[in-house]
């Protein structure tokens, strides 16, 4: 066995470790241009969120792989997280599921602090938008499934 080669590989892997940085220093990725049908549909149906109270979404990871350190669940619901000066980030994935096209959009929140003194560092919330077929000229929303701490609930488009 070549121990020198093994040492070089191990040292290289150790040197590329990403850092944990302050939640308000994570710079989001620029939104890429839609280069496929699925990208176009994902951008078309991307939900907008409104934060009445509580923490606003922030980017979770930057281009260097550095991740947000989040926030301790202290102070008011929105203390320290009323929005990033760099902008937010929406993460998305899509696939076929039971003959329906599912697009999952995800937002990262540095903390979840619904009641003063209670909560946790880091939170992810999701919305799944169910459509009939992304290849159709005018795809139709069949249902929307938002997440919450108690799980998911689906609202059908009837």
From TrEMBL:
The keyword Secreted applies. Keywords: Secreted, Signal, Virulence. Pfam families: NPP1. InterPro entries: NPP1. It is found in: Secreted. One of its GO terms (cellular component) is extracellular region. Residues 1-18 form the signal peptide. Belongs to the Necrosis inducing protein (NPP1) family. This is Uncharacterized protein. It comes from Phytophthora kernoviae.
């Amino acid at each position: 066995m070549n121990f020198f080669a093994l040492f070089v590989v191990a040292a290289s892997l150790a040197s590329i470790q990403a850092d944990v940085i302050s939640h308000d220093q994570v710079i989001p990725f620029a939104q890429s241009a839609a280069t496929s049908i699925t990208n176009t549909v994902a951008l078309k149906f991307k939900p907008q969120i409104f934060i009445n109270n509580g923490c606003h979404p922030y980017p979770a990871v930057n281009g260097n792989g550095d991740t947000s350190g989040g926030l301790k669940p202290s102070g008011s619901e929105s203390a320290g997280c009323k929005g990033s000066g760099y902008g937010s980030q929406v993460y998305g994935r899509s696939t076929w599921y039971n003959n329906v096209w599912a697009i999952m959009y995800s937002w990262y929140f540095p903390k979840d602090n619904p009641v003063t003194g209670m909560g946790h560092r880091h939170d992810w919330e999701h919305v799944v938008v169910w459509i009939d077929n992304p290849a159709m000229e005018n795809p139709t929303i069949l249902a929307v499934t938002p997440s919450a701490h108690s799980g998911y609930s689906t609202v059908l488009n009837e």
